């Protein structure tokens, strides 16, 4: 790098405009003084509107021109409306056109209506089943099944399903909905000699439950997985036979299948489980099925939920029958925070008002935050009342008045676990609900290292979706005699996983949730209060085998004011992927489909996502999928991540880009224990190659894991989760199968050398990241040493910080050569954070950005992107960029409508254009970026 962008303050002096706040030259008089200041202010204003000068050297310009000069621009005026006559006939063209022109109603009409009966199979399946009923393992399992509350409802359930197309079934968690209902149906078909007509899909909200339930059901049927029971989740499947079988799968898997077969023509029954969770895919599927059953009149739809709000679903389906399985649970004693504080004599370890620090107290009181106001209004008076009643220690009541008493406190939970284990001698497992991985692992470590929970007396399990499936099975086994089982879990143990022998429950009172704030266009991930429904579910876990006890870590007053139900996810998240999914399913105009949802999202949220999809060129102005949008909808990732993957394939730097895409889509693999942040930060910097890019770091982490001999040591040393890394590796392979389907690659190996010709070119990879993530751009204001002073995203006025986990954070360590960054996620948690970022140079932004425009000002040529980002340039540079952008558009449309592998080995027009683009977007040492450290810094 020959120049540092932040070093160009001096440049201004050449315009006769001194930096800083100098006075006019001494020789000036009268009007000239006024003119001097007017000119200076004008120049300053103009400067503030630009982000500097971008200028290619003559030789570079020539080199780039030579590469693409005279190269084919046939079909440049490509899109003629929506007819795509310029695209040759191909499989792609046919499926693309059918996807933008068709609609789901027509597609459903074309689908075969009835499942075909296979008589000889019916006979065979019946005989097999009769034989199975005599199997000793089957019989012993059946004895257990008979005792479940759902068994007594078997006949009634079968009858109502037989007589109705749609049925809602509710029942206490553990009564046997998930494992039994599908088996009742299947067995009935088998016994009646209609087995070939039965194919049941049962959707689960989580991967972990799809597998564990399928395993359980196969066990109950004295079979291995893959005979009459199987599962399918995103990266794994074990499918059963085609006829007479049950598949447990995630909701996303069914939606994907419906892209090619919306009528679900091979399915006889679809059971949507855990609908009360109101996840986006399940809400979406429920709405979609309302359309589908009109055509597939033989398809049975069974909606299953815990006993929460199930009436609402029946109402949504035109008051369809609703059957409740009466369950039996033992009474559960309930305790609240005040009781816990009283029992444990716990003292919050902080300077609260009870310790006389008035300043601290005042600071908290001053807060205008609605949460504080609510606390003052409801909880503080309750604590006062408790004090006056004298039932609790004064110390307890005083502590309740401190708002921090409502935060999750692992020390208090630890003390409570100790208290329960010491004071309650009876048998029974203890289940602790916490919000996330970090808390679960911290409490787990605390218990393990405390010496109070020796392995001779306790077995402790963390239960989290990131745990490997082998560990999970042990959780269901009863603890060995004389030992107590302690399970520390997320809300997964609330409804989808049932552990029978739980007698004690600790409910931390919170659930971590993402919430999309349309006004700031930011996602927030925060622990929120549970709803009454969650709290009841958690309590219910304690009364499965005998009377139990539940400890809620919040006061009775808080319990009175928490919401009845959690808000459905669809009104809490970004809708980009959901809209693309609706488009590929051919559901028509978004504004017509979305209002059909049970709880339609805010129209502003819909608009934000439509705008983004249009900016990504995934949708055209008429809301039709573009060829690019079509591919993006086929990739199982967020559209921006998908775009990055396609560009990675086109520019032959696939392996690193897939690693980055997988990490953005799933999660980054770093797992940093509390208190180790600094060490982890150093380790991150060590492998991030000083590129000011979190995305590059994500690649390096996975790459080193994949190529390192001793992965365990590497993971341990660099605070990485080997489980997550192994998932990411699998995801890369899965992306390859999608790219292969789309015909963008000719091999399934992400490391195939022809797909990675440019994988060592970090500048190119950063440019590809930029191509994918645009318009997520933020502008840094740098000080003279190139350190970030403020960060402002281009879509609003708000200022951000780098998340402390980002390698770009750290005031003293990060020096930026360019004030531009691209990012994937903005998150509001304790502050407004840019979660992950890559510093990019101006050319990738100018090249891949939208709303490219050019203006000739008295000062020279200017290019602007997205209206906000303006760069000075020369005429020559402007022309090269403009022409190459046109060629890139031609190339992209060509490539995307003729998906195929780019052959870099033989000279071709395609390769020349790509090489020219690469030359341009990786030219980093050109031009100057103005980034004056002014007092009045509000120019973007
Ligand atoms: P529901 O869906 O109504 O909550 P399930 O069908 O999941 O209930 O579970 C019914 C019963 O089956 C549970 O109460 C539990 O006793 C038992 N069970 C479920 N899954 C397992 C498993 N993986 N291992 C052992 N027992 C299980
Ligand atoms: Mg269930």
TrEMBL record:
Disordered as annotated region, ranges: 1-31
Single annotated GO MF: G-quadruplex DNA binding
Keywords from the UniProt entry: ATP-binding, Coiled coil, Helicase, Hydrolase, Nucleotide-binding, RNA-binding
Domain Helicase ATP-binding: 158-326
Residue span, Helicase C-terminal domain: 412-586
Uppermost EC category: hydrolase
Catalyzed reactions per annotation: ATP + H2O = ADP + phosphate + H(+)
Keyword Disulfide bond among UniProt keywords: no
RNA-binding as UniProt keyword: yes
Signal peptide extent: none
Recorded GO CC terms: cytoplasm; nucleus
The protein's Enzyme Commission number: 3.6.4.13
Basic residues bias locations: 1-10
Similarity section: Belongs to the DEAD box helicase family. DEAH subfamily.
Protein name (record): RNA helicase
């Amino acid at each position: 790098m020959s120049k540092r962008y932040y070093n160009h303050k001096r440049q201004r002096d050449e315009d006769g405009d001194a930096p800083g706040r100098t006075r006019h030259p001494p020789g000036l008089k009268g009007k000239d003084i006024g003119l001097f200041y007017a000119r200076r202010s004008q120049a300053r204003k103009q400067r503030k509107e630009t982000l500097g000068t971008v200028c290619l050297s003559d030789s570079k310009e020539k080199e780039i021109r030579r590469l693409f000069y005279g190269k084919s621009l046939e079909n440049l005026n490509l899109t003629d409306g929506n007819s795509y006559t310029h695209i040759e006939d191909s499989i792609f063209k046919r499926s693309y056109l059918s996807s933008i022109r068709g609609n789901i109603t027509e597609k459903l009409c074309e689908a075969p209506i009835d499942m075909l009966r296979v008589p000889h199979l019916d006979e065979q399946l019946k005989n097999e089943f009769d034989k199975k009923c005599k199997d000793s393992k089957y019989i012993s399992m059946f004895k257990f099944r008979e005792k479940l509350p759902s068994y007594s409802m078997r006949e009634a359930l079968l009858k109502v399903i037989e007589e109705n197309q749609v049925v809602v079934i509710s029942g206490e968690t553990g009564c046997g909905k998930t494992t039994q209902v599908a088996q009742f149906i299947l067995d009935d078909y088998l016994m009646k000699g209609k087995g070939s007509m039965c194919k049941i899909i049962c959707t689960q909200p989580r991967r972990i439950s799809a597998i564990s339930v399928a395993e359980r059901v196969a066990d109950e049927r004295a079979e291995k997985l893959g005979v009459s029971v199987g599962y399918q989740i995103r990266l794994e499947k074990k499918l059963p036979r085609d006829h007479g079988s049950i598949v447990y799968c995630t909701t996303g898997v069914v939606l994907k299948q419906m892209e090619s077969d919306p009528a679900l023509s091979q399915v006889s029954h679809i059971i949507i489980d855990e609908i009360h969770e109101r996840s986006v895919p399940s809400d979406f599927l429920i709405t979609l099925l309302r359309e589908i059953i009109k055509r597939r009149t033989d398809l049975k739809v069974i909606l299953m939920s815990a006993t929460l709000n199930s009436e609402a679903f029946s109402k949504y389906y035109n008051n369809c029958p609703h059957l409740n399985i009466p369950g039996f649970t033992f009474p559960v004693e309930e305790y609240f925070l005040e009781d816990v504080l009283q029992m444990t004599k716990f003292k919050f370890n902080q300077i609260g008002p009870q310790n006389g620090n008035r300043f601290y107290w005042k600071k908290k009181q001053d807060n205008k935050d609605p949460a504080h106001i609510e606390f003052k209004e409801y909880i503080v008076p309750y604590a006062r009342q408790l004090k006056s009643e004298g039932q609790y220690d004064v110390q307890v009541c005083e502590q309740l008045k401190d708002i921090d008493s409502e935060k999750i406190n692992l020390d208090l939970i630890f003390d409570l676990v100790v208290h329960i284990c010491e004071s309650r001698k009876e048998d029974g497992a203890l289940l602790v609900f916490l919000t996330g991985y970090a808390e679960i692992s911290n409490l787990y470590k605390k218990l393990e290292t405390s010496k109070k929970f020796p392995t001779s007396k306790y077995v402790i399990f963390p239960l989290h979706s990131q745990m490997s499936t082998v560990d999970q099975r042990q959780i269901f086994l009863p603890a060995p005699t004389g030992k107590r089982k302690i399970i520390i879990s997320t809300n997964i143990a609330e409804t989808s996983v049932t552990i029978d022998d739980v007698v004690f429950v600790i409910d931390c009172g919170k659930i971590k949730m993402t919430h999309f704030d349309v006004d700031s266009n930011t996602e927030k991930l925060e622990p929120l209060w549970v709803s009454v429904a969650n709290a009841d579910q958690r309590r219910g876990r304690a009364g499965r085998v005998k009377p139990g006890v539940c400890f809620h870590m919040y006061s009775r007053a808080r319990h009175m004011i928490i919401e009845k139900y959690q808000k459905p996810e669809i009104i809490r998240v970004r809708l980009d992927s959901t809209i693309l999914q609706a488009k590929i399913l051919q559901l028509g105009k978004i504004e017509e489909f979305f209002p059909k949802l049970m709880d339609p999202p805010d129209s502003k949220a819909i608009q934000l996502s439509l705008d983004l999809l249009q900016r990504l060129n995934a949708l055209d102005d008429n809301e039709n999928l573009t060829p690019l949008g079509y591919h993006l909808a086929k990739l199982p990732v967020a559209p921006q991540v998908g775009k990055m993957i396609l560009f990675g394939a086109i520019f032959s730097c696939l392996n690193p880009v897939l690693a980055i895409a997988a990490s953005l889509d799933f999660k980054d693999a770093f797992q940093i224990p509390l208190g180790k942040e600094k060490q982890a930060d150093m380790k991150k910097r060590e492998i991030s190659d000083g590129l000011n890019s979190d995305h590059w770091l994500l690649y390096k982490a996975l790459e080193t894991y994949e190529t390192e001999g001793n992965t365990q040591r590497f993971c341990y040393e660099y605070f990485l989760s080997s489980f997550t890394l192994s998932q990411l590796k699998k995801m890369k392979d899965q992306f390859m199968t999608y790219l292969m389907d789309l015909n963008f690659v000719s091999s399934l190996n992400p490391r195939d050398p022809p797909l990675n010709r440019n994988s060592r070119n970090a500048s190119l990879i950063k440019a590809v990241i930029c191509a994918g993530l645009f318009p997520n751009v933020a502008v840094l204001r740098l000080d003279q040493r190139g350190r970030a002073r403020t960060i402002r995203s281009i879509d609003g006025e708000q200022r951000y910080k780098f998340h402390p986990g980002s390698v770009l954070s750290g005031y003293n360590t990060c020096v930026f050569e360019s004030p531009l960054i691209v990012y994937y996620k903005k998150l509001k948690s304790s502050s407004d954070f840019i979660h992950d970022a890559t510093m990019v140079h101006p050319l990738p932004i100018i090249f891949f950005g939208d709303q490219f425009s050019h203006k000739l000002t008295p000062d020279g040529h200017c290019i602007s992107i997205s209206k906000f980002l303006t760069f000075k340039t020369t005429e020559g540079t402007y022309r090269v960029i403009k022409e190459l952008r046109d060629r890139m558009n031609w190339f992209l449309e060509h490539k995307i409508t003729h998906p195929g592998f780019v052959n870099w080995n033989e000279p071709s027009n395609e390769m020349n254009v790509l090489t020219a683009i690469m030359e341009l977007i990786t030219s980093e040492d050109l031009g100057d970026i103005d980034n004056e450290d002014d007092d009045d810094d509000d120019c973007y």
